[in-house]
Write a structure and sequence with these properties.
By secondary structure, the protein is mainly alpha-helical. It contains 21 helices and four strands.
Length: about 500
């Protein structure tokens, strides 16, 4: 009799312990992300190749130069909107023009996104445990999106504006709230791509039309006015180049032809990493449907589909890297928190069976955190990695005369070698992500070939893996002078993968 009565108490204690462990795991994930981001904040070299291009765009804002100009062999503007670079330039006026300014904007935006995830979950459930768990899940997924939460690129700010627009729309009842939601979505479009916000903006038009009827027009008008006004200001500064980069080039993007569109997104990017969260999260949607709570069902179901559509379409492009998964990560975290709160609320009974179920479900939540656990130390560059970067920067600076070193701009900042292009941006001109080679791309190729043919550069440094197309254009005008670093150089002992390897030097062929 005594043993039988001890079972409920034991199961309840196990469930309580597991629930406390989930909270600790979530808090540890949040703290870990913040510490790692702060340690990476001041790293003086690129953490990711596009940081260099973002840095050059920030400098253009600081110097009052237009962002969108005719492409040259040394500078090809990115197809992203101006908001991120403008905010980074504002921060740079305080902390100086360094990579830290870029990363600070991303970090602050990500902290805002974490707060919005927690807010949305708590607003629906008033469950603090579930809200903390949802925030922790997004934080612990940090490495899965190319560390985009703190890297100097547009993704973190884009995700923040999307979530902020959604959060404001969820509780919008007044004209002010509807305008705020529309402006936030418009800012998201002007941060990355206007076309990138269409799935979410279109969904919110439907959601607000269902819940507020004709007042949804206020949201749509605020969204469109924000986009149009921003584009008009850019056109006034840059002329037709602004719309060419923001609309014409992105519209050329096409779906890749690998034949694994759904497979890569679901079976490589999402399901293996969020297995348990995707088992728990849909419980909220199913319960909302069963109880005929149509507004939450429409908001989180339809909004979730719009975020997934955004990530899926971006990832399915041939140039889509895992940084585009941030909106999906945020969605999974929100649904995880909502589902967790619902299930725990319904399994807090006194029977042995209910307590066993609660212990089992909380265990699944803990397994989700275990599945995503990572070593924070590996996300922060070692001191030796900085030595390698300093060695690379010094070696490039020591090369006499003019230099062409695409993708290596971040190691030449402050030198006299001039700006170096991001080949990913050049790929936009060349139909690298779908579509045809543009007229501007054809001119870019011709100008590069002419520069090589006329031997305008005293040295050309290329990576064997990621500059093969440039190397093909060298023709007979240049010959290899060997690797930038000989096999016995200290560089090879210091580098740990963040600094480029397999760099080869080319010099003009004697005439």
């Amino acid at each position: 009799m005594t043993a039988a009565r001890s079972v409920p108490r034991d199961l309840s204690g196990v469930a309580d312990l597991l629930e406390a462990t989930v909270v600790l795991a979530a808090l540890a994930s949040i703290v870990s992300f913040v510490i790692v981001a702060l340690l990476r904040l001041g790293y003086p070299f690129p953490l990711q190749v596009t940081e260099s291009a973002s840095f050059e765009e920030m400098l253009r804002v600081l110097h009052g130069q237009p962002l969108y100009v005719a492409p040259t062999i040394s500078h090809v503007p990115m197809i992203y909107g101006p908001v991120y670079f403008t905010l980074a330039a504002a921060v740079a006026t305080v902390v100086g023009p360094t990579f830290s300014a870029l990363r600070a904007v991303s970090l602050l935006a990500s902290l805002g996104s974490l707060a919005l995830v927690g807010y949305l979950v708590y607003r629906e459930t008033t469950d603090r445990v579930a809200a903390v768990a949802a925030v922790g899940l997004l934080a612990v997924a940090y490495p899965l999106a190319e560390q985009a939460l703190d890297v100097g690129r547009v993704d973190a700010l884009f995700a923040f504006f999307l979530l902020a627009g959604l959060a404001v729309a969820r509780s919008a009842r007044t004209v002010r709230g509807l305008v705020a939601s529309g402006v936030l979505l418009g800012l998201a479009g002007l941060t990355k791509l206007p076309i990138g916000t269409l799935p979410v903006a279109g969904f919110l038009c439907v959601y607000l039309a269902v819940s507020l009827r004709m007042r949804a027009i206020i949201f749509a008008a605020a969204f469109l006015v924000t986009i149009i006004l921003g584009v008009l200001l850019l056109r006034a500064q840059s002329g037709p180049w602004a719309t060419w980069y923001l609309f014409d080039l992105p519209n050329q993007h096409g779906i890749n032809d690998h034949g694994n569109l759904g497979g890569r997104f679901w079976f490589l990017d999402v399901l293996p990493h969020f297995t348990f969260a995707l088992l728990i999260g849909p419980a909220f949607l199913l319960a909302s449907a069963a109880e005929r709570h149509l507004k939450p069902l429409l908001f989180y179901g339809g909004g979730g589909l719009s975020l997934i559509a955004l990530s899926w379409a971006s990832r399915s492009n041939s140039g889509g890297a895992t940084n585009v998964l941030l909106p999906t990560h945020a969605l999974v975290a929100i649904l995880f928190g909502l589902g967790m709160a619902l299930i725990l609320r319904d399994v807090r009974g006194r029977s042995v069976r209910v307590r066993a179920m609660r212990a089992y479900l909380v265990g699944l939540c803990l397994l989700q955190f275990a599945l995503l656990a990572y070593n924070p130390r590996l996300q922060v560059p070692y001191r030796s990695e900085q030595w390698a970067a300093e060695r690379l920067a010094a070696r490039l600076a020591d090369l006499s005369g003019s230099l062409y070193a695409p993708e290596l701009d971040g190691y030449l900042l402050g030198s006299d070698k001039g700006e170096q292009p991001l080949l990913g941006a050049a790929g936009e001109l060349l139909g690298g992500y779908g579509g045809m080679v543009t007229d501007e791309g054809a001119r870019w190729e011709n100008d590069l070939a002419t520069a090589f043919r006329e031997q305008r550069f005293d040295h050309v440094v290329l990576g064997k893996d990621w500059c093969c197309e440039v190397q093909d254009r060298l023709g007979d005008a240049y010959v290899s002078a060997g690797p930038l670093f000989p096999p016995d150089d200290d560089y090879w002992r210091w580098t740990a993968g963040r600094t480029p390897t397999e760099l080869e030097v080319f010099v003009p062929r004697p005439r």
